[in-house]
Amino acid sequence: MQIKQITQYIESIAPLAFQESYDNSGLIIGHPEDEVSGILITLDITEEILDEAIIKKLNLIVAHHPVIFGGIKKLNGRDYVERCVAKAIKNDIAIYAAHTNLDSVFGGVNSKICDKLNLRNCRILDPMTNFLKKLVTFVPTAHAEKVRNAMFEAGAGSIGNYDSCSFNLNGTGSFRGNAQANPFIGQKNQLHMEEETRIETIFPKHLQSLIIQALLKAHPYEEVAYDIYPLDNNYPQAGIGMIGELQTPIDEMDFLYQLKKVFNCKVVKHTQLLGKQISSVAVCGGSGSTYLNMAIAQKADVFISGDFKYHQFFDAENRIIIADIGHYESEQFTKEVFYEFLTKKFPKFAVHLSEKSTNPVNYLI
Ligand SMILES: [Zn+2]
User: Fold this and answer.
1) 8-state DSSP, 105
2) What is the 145 CA–ligand 1 centroid distance (Å)?
3) pLDDT tens, position by position, 348-361
4) Of 96, 100, 64, 114, whose CA–CA distance to 334 is shortest?
């Protein structure tokens, strides 16, 4: 197995195009065509994690947090990042990270949090914007089905739980090829009118080149007419955070105790209780404080995340309960996410969960 077979599979679930602008997900160290002896799954890269990979003879580490965020100009071993990078290269260990792209998909970090809390009807809390495009093309009617299906197979036409979505309108196209043309139908230098179908469909922008390739391959014309429009619609299939409902509303204190137990937290920092039942729950693994307003706007009763600063707790203003369970605690089940989808796809391959907690925060109780 080559590294790229693993990374392409992960990116089919969590496309790199879904990562935030500041992020550095993807293959950080290693060559895509190197052979993989086994995979070690972790939340963070530390020197201890590298030692674990070396001892277990696993030469690919799949992590949630990228070990390198900004640029590195020197490798002098002066901090843990420089030491980890040097150690990985010396020991021929590849490092891959799926960070905010895995936060942003169904089946990713936040889906797992929702599963652990038995939430139903889960939706993306902050759907991506400027991510959808419209494709319009004109096809001789007898070939419309073939072209439509080719675009659908490449990923066009998916809306929520529906696929193969398009709008089709028949009309008349006109064209005249010059002396160098080789028209599929009609004659050179003669104006031709043809019954054509205008096909409109929608697609997420990271699939654009695949869909255009599929269109050009399936379309019979020498010159294919098509238009691509950017859309202002949200993309509800991807984005940060999730919101869902409990099966039955419960008392807020009971909910917080349950939360503490499920996430095995030493402490849950929370804002003032509101004397209401908890029904709607918003979650955002990691540092999610900037999504508080989205949770309030969508009428969540509680917002679960980590890394809230003192002043940010004031922003709840009795409209919601903030429950800060800790960054590591909120993302701890991400290791399970990786493990489940990698072992499902590669059942006979050595995929190991790291036995170490990389949480740098300790609690004195
Ligand atoms: Zn994180």
Assistant:
1) B
2) 45
3) 999 999 999 999 99
4) 64
Q: How far is the CA of 274 from the centre of ligand 1 (A)?
A: 29
Ligand 1 ion: residues within 5 Å (CB)? 286, 331
Q: Ligand 1 centre from 327 Cα, in Å?
A: 6
Which helix (H) or strand (E) segment holds residue 277: the answer is strand 277-287
Query: What global pTM score does this model have?
Result: 0.89
Supply the DSSP symbol for 301.
S
Nearest to 262 by CA among 292, 300, 298, 304: 304
CA of 225 to the centre of ligand 1 (A): 45
Ligand 1 geometric centre to CA of 330 (Å): 8
If you measure from the C-alpha of residue 100 to the centroid of ligand 1, how many angstroms do you get, rounded to a whole number?
A: 8
Short-list 321, 314, 339, CA closest to 282 = 321
How many CA atoms, within 13 angstroms, populate the side-chain half-sphere of residue 14?
A: 31
Centre of ligand 1 to C-alpha 360, Å, is 12
| Separation of CA 118 and ligand 1 centre (Å) | 22
Q: Using alpha carbons, list the distances in angstroms from residue 149 to 146, 294, 346.
A: 5, 37, 29
Using alpha carbons, select from 348, 327, 333 the residue that is nearest to residue 39: 348
Of 324, 251, 250, 234, which is closest to residue 288 (Cα–Cα)?
A: 324
Of 297, 269, 266, 303, nearest to 284 by C-alpha is 303
Q: Give CA separation, 208 vs 11, 146, 158, 213, 215, in Å.
A: 16, 18, 14, 9, 10
Q: Which of 9, 81, 78 has its CA nearest to residue 45?
A: 81
- For residue range 242-286, what is the model confidence (pLDDT) as tens digits? 999 999 999 999 999 999 999 999 999 999 999 999 999 999 999
Tokens at residue 47, please? 């020197």
Could you tell me how far CA 176 lies from the centroid of its own chain?
Answer: 45
Calculate how far, in angstroms, residue 334's C-alpha sits from the geometric centre of ligand 1.
10
Q: How far apart are CA 7 and CA 11, in angstroms?
A: 6
